Amino acid sequence: MPETKKDTDLNADKEKADAQSMTTNQGVKINDDQNSLKAGDRGSTLMEDFIFREKMTHFDHERIPERVVHARGTGAHGYFKVYESQEALTKAKFLTDTSAETPVFIRFSTVAGSRGSTDLARDVRGFAVKFYTEEGNFDLVGNNMPVFFIQDAMKFPDLIHAVKPEPHHEMPQAASAHDTFWDFISLMPESTHMIMWLMSDRALPRSYRMMEGFGVHTFRLVNEAGVSHFVKFHWKPLLGVHSIAWDEAQKISGKDPDFHRRDLWEAIESGAYPEWELGIQVVPEEDEHKYEFDLLDPTKIIPEELVPVQRIGKLTLNRNPDNFFAETEQVAFHVGNVVPGIDFTNDPLMQGRLFSYTDTQLIRLGGPNFHEIPINRPVVPIHNNQRDGFMRQQINTNRTSYNPNSIGSGCPFQVGKMQGGFTSYAERIDAHKIRARSKSFFDHFSQATLFYNSQSEPEKEHMVNALSFELGKVEIKEIRERMLGILSLVDKGLAGQVARNLGLSVPEVEKPINKGVPADANGEYEPVLDVKSSVDKSVALSMAGTVKDSIKTRKIAFLVADGVNDDSVITMQDQLLDQGAVVEIISARLGTVSGENNTIIPVNKSLLTAASVFYDAVYIPGGSLSVGKLEKDPDAIHFLNEAYRHCKAIAADNDALPVLQATYFSKKLPKETSKGKASDEGIIVQTEIGMLVKEFTAAVAKHRFWEREEERKVPA
Ligand code: HDE
């Protein structure tokens, strides 16, 4: 892969120990890295041992504070290319120059958990992209959900205090299912729309590679003539948007808490580079007040039916970091990192973020020079009069560090806007200074209802289950009841189903309790309940209609034992690999199995380390000896039961049917084995391998057979 300008820039700082001698940090060669210097062979360690002291001191200081939110994450390098010049909208060169391949670094994250927590928490995912453009760094610090919990940055510390582990016993880790979170939410009706997203399958992505990303706030694009348009940024994954089941997420959390991190790493290592298209929704200035929602309100989307998403470019991730700490941990994103042609709006959440991101890096990365850390520095030179501070790397050689100056010939000089100097969009402002919330922000329910109504039946059921789980973990009954009141304002059916699961009844409420108001509110902050979304259903909000025509990067398990039909294994494997899937051969033990025709087949994982929750689908090849062993192996049967429970595609050669007959879902199998078709769409049994491959591939591409859940009470 060609080296980007950022790769070249990073190369200068890379250390490689190959064929090198070991030295101290002062460059002195080390003779003994095993023993400290002692007064005699049984004596105490000597203070003069500079080699020991240096090693231990560095070790003692090697931790830095984790991010206060989004602590758990993983990163990757890549590049972005715009399809067609967007000069009508923006002067940002990386969006107008179609020949430019702009290097990027991306970091995906969960929000609530600590650095070592599970990837599979029910949570929002961070989707932060740093573009190293020729005009400086642009950071698009987004999430995988297009709205947020709160409307004003003032409430962010409260929100995060509520969701983080409770302060007295620091429990639970990486989970919102506890009293303080729902206490806060139940008093803040503005969070209702976001709660719908958080309780949806979006909170359980199958992979970072299969999530959408959103800039959330309305931004501005500004063109050369100074004309501004409002814009919402989207990332659309080319593999589609896919999620997993909650039961599966909980199991993965135990079996492989690095599941998403590993998935991204392995995809990039194997050359299956993840791709997203950058989408924009553009609203002209004159349409600012055209909608029933305020463009500045971060709890609202612009339904794609009202303003379609135009796909303007593609992001490809093609290189894993060399060092997690140096790159992924030290990368510092900031919403305020914009380039000429991109500007902010007055969204009060965004405005607060403009302060918070630099501020947090000052403590996390230890001082004002964090922009000099290799992963953070731009690919263009930096010249200004900022000086000194902890860990300064740049050696400024000018005598002057002020402007204006004559001694330094006025350098570094300012740059006219026509030459690329940044100028802020000259928005007209004529207002009183007030601490308040705009009345145009008072509708908290219309889009929550729109979201719920846009979901497919299985997605709705998942939301009912998610809310029942989360509120079921809440100990204080009043909080649960308050939440039921809020849910009833979104959808009475939803509230009723959750209430039933909680053993409660839905309280009659005319309006939600709203405690997110100032001391002297005097009833001025009443939520508005009569706003109706101008769109009843928005297709883009459901995952049901997402990309389902490819099995690329899908992980498929083959369960085998000695005596397996090797022809089946090889044919199926070749066909699946051809279509970009990943195949792993799983058996009771590691090593190899030998096939009916004596082919030696290497085993990738044993049933001890593999689990069906790591795979998208399962295949059981025939071969009477192998089948005989598998049908009696409880681990293999459990594997299949679990795959069934999680609604995955399952295929078997016709003569492997006895294995499926030993499962809990045997009643779903074809009555007559020669008929070769199961009554459940996602279970394929065929005699003819060509047909089996075809039907299995189509089933894997569908991702999941959620309809199966109606009878999902499979003990697995
Ligand atoms: Fe963040 N957020 N945030 N946030 N955020 C941070 O910055 C903050 C918000 C997002 O991978 C912190 O460097 C405030 C919305 C991502 O390094 C901190 C508010 C969105 C990441 C911070 C928000 C995000 C962060 C913690 C409300 C989606 C991880 C560490 C006013 C559009 C970036 C850090 C990474 C990280 C503050 C709300 C996305 C404390 C005050 C809305 C993806 O500065």
From TrEMBL:
Pfam families associated with the record: Catalase, Catalase-rel, Catalase_C
PROSITE patterns documented for this protein: CATALASE_1 (PS00437), CATALASE_2 (PS00438), CATALASE_3 (PS51402)
Leader sequence residues: none
UniProt-listed InterPro entries: Catalase, Catalase_AS, Catalase_clade2, Catalase_clade2_helical, Catalase_core, Catalase_haem_BS, Catalase_immune_responsive, Catalase_large_C
Residue ranges with Polar residues bias: 20-37
EC code: 1.11.1.6
Source species, domain of life: Bacteria
Region (Disordered) residue spans: 1-41
Limits of the Catalase core domain: 23-411
Membership in a protein family: Belongs to the catalase family. HPII subfamily.
Name of the molecule in the record: Catalase
Organism name: Niastella soli
Lineage of the organism: Bacteria, Pseudomonadati, Bacteroidota, Chitinophagia, Chitinophagales
